[in-house]
Amino acid sequence: MADTDTSETTFKRVLLKISGEALMGDQGYGLHPPTVERIAREVKSVHDMGVEICMVIGGGNIFRGLAGSAQGMERTTADYMGMLATVMNALAMQSALEGIGVYTRVISAIRMDEVAEPYIRRRAVRHLEKKRVCIFAAGTGNPYFTTDTAATLRANEMACEAIFKGTKVDGVYDKDPMEHDDAVRYETVSYDDCLAKNLKVMDASAIALARDNNLPIIVFSLDEPGGFKGILAGRGTFTRVQG
Predict the structure, then answer these.
(1) Residue ranges for the binding site?
(2) What is the largest CA-CA distance in the chain?
(3) Comparing C-alpha atoms, which of 164, 169, 166 is closest to residue 152?
(4) Mean local confidence (pLDDT), 159-178
(5) Which sites bind UMP (predicted)?
(6) Rounded to a whole number, what is the distance in angstroms from the first to the last CA of the chain?
(7) Coil, strand or helix: which one is 126?
(8) Among candidates 58, 54, 113, which has minimal Cα distance to 85?
(9) Are 20 and 55 in contact (CB under 8 A)?
(10) Which domains does the chain have, with CATH numbers?
(11) For residues 165 and 147, is the Cβ–Cβ distance under 8 A?
């Protein structure tokens, strides 16, 4: 497949971070294949622009380590179970992407060679250069670190130009827009304000790591058709988190 001209896009290499809950549609649990396929088509539309894409998907639709720990499970075990949930989601996304013609690699921080590649940075970079979508699974491979932190870590290692955080709302608000009609959306907000005001963009470790490496975070609505592609083309509604 010929490389596509990327002169029309704002970024050349990005990381898309989505929650596991984004894959369950209107269900209360698990995977909703039509929703997975819809998100895969959004990714393909950006991939077709020539943008190199990494992905990190949470596991909260299957198992969330913190929730298990809160119910009495030993925290480290619960976190490892959460990491395995992210591998299941990554494999589902890989299947959806390859079903529509996008070459994909699932790269796991926990070795499971029968279903995913181990994480080797230079190999992952080469996959991106060959226009394959890299889905990083199993978090950082360590308990006590969220998939938000894993996304920021991998984005830095892959020299991504931005993290795209797909959510249910079209940016960062001063309070929950689902509960408050007078919530105000930020066009831009600083890393320090996110931390000081506890704006729930990502967890504190992820925000601090992005700040220390001057990596912008673009928060947008994953539910808006064409939203991901639109922002890459320089339009759309979103919040930019930067220094």
Answers:
(1) 17-20, 59-60, 64, 79, 140-147, 167, 173, 176
(2) 53
(3) 164
(4) 93
(5) 59, 79, 140-147
(6) 38
(7) helix
(8) 58
(9) no
(10) 13-242 (3.40.1160.10)
(11) no
What φ, ψ does residue 70 adopt, rounded to 5°? -65, -25
Classify the C-alpha dihedral 193-202-236-102 as positive or negative: positive
For residue 146, is it left (φ>0), alpha (ψ between -120 and 50) or beta?
A: beta
pLDDT-above-90 percentage for the chain: 84
Residue 4: what pLDDT? 46
Tokens of 190: 């600083």
Nearest to 23 by CA among 147, 158, 186, 208: 147
pLDDT at position 109 is: 98
Asked if pLDDT for residue 6 goes beyond 60, the answer is: no
What pLDDT sits at residue 8?
A: 61
**Residue ranges for the binding site for UMP?**
59, 79, 140-147
Beta strands in 122-233 (DSSP E): 133-137, 162-167, 188-190, 217-221
Say how far apart CA 73 and CA 67 lie, in whole Å: 9
Give tens-digit pLDDT for 108-166. Answer: 999 999 999 999 999 999 999 999 999 999 999 999 999 999 999 999 999 999 999 99
Identify the residue whose tokens are 């907000």: 189
Report which of 96, 94, 100, 87 is spatially closest to residue 61, judged by C-alpha positions.
87
